[in-house]
C-alpha cells in the first residue's frame, strides 16, 4: 500500500472498496499512474456494446483529459456512495445529459439522451415531437435550453425514481 490511500478524496470510500478499485484498475491498465482510455474503461465496466458508456466516461473524466485516472475512478466510487440525496443524483443526470458540458441542455442533447436511454422506443419522428413538447413544457424561461431547475422539473415529472440505486 502506497500513500495513495491517504489522499483526502479517498476518505469517503472504504478500504475494501479502494482495494477492489485498485485491483481492477491495475488489472486493466497495468499501472496506477497512467489513465484508462475510453476502450479500457468500457471493458472495465463490462459496458462493451452499451451506448451510454461514452457518456459515462465523460462524467467520470472530470478534468476532460480524454482518459480516466485512478483518482477519477475513486472519485466516481465516492460520488456514487454519497449520492443519497436526490439533488446529487439530479446533478449527475444533468451532467449526463449535458454532453458538451456548457451547463445547459439543448434540444439536441435532450434528443440524444432520450435515444440513448431507450432507442427502441423512439423512432425519429416520434423523438422530434417528444423533444419539442418536452422543451415547450419545461423550458419555462424560453431560452431554448434546459437549465438545472428546468431539468429537475422534467425529471420529477417524468416519474424518475431518484430514490432507487440504479444511476
Ligand atoms: Ca449542453
Ligand atoms: Ca431554459
TrEMBL record:
Keyword RNA-binding included in the entry's annotation: no
InterPro entries tied to this protein: EF-hand-dom_pair, EF_Hand_1_Ca_BS, EF_hand_dom
What are the record keywords, sorted? Calcium, Metal-binding, Repeat
What CDD domains does the annotation carry? EFh (cd00051)
Q: Which Gene3D superfamilies match?
A: EF-hand
Residue ranges of domain EF-hand in the record:
48-83, 85-120, 126-161
Q: Which SUPFAM superfamilies match?
A: EF-hand (SSF47473)
A single Pfam family it belongs to is EF-hand_8
Name one molecular function that GO assigns to this entry: calcium ion binding
Under PANTHER family, the record lists: PROTEIN PHOSPATASE 3 REGULATORY SUBUNIT B ALPHA ISOFORM TYPE 1
| Name of the protein in its database record | EF-hand domain-containing protein
Amino acid at each position: 500500500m502506497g500513500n495513495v490511500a491517504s489522499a483526502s478524496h479517498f476518505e469517503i470510500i472504504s478500504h475494501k472498496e479502494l482495494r477492489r478499485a485498485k485491483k481492477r484498475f491495475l488489472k486493466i491498465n497495468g499501472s496506477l499512474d497512467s489513465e484508462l482510455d475510453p476502450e479500457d474503461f468500457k471493458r472495465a465496466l463490462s459496458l462493451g456494446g452499451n451506448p451510454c458508456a461514452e457518456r459515462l466516461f465523460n462524467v467520470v473524466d472530470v478534468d476532460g483529459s480524454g482518459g480516466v485516472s485512478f483518482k477519477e475512478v475513486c472519485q466516481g466510487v465516492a460520488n456514487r456512495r454519497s449520492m443519497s440525496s436526490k439533488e446529487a443524483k439530479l446533478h449527475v443526470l444533468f451532467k449526463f445529459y449535458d454532453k458538451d458540458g456548457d451547463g445547459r441542455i439543448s434540444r439536441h442533447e435532450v434528443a440524444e439522451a432520450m435515444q440513448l436511454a431507450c432507442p427502441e422506443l423512439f423512432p425519429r419522428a416520434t423523438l422530434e415531437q417528444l423533444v419539442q413538447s418536452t422543451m415547450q413544457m419545461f423550458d419555462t424561461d424560453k431560452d431554448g435550453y434546459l437549465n438545472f431547475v428546468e431539468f429537475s422539473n422534467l425529471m420529477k415529472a417524468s416519474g424518475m425514481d431518484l430514490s432507487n440505486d440504479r444511476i
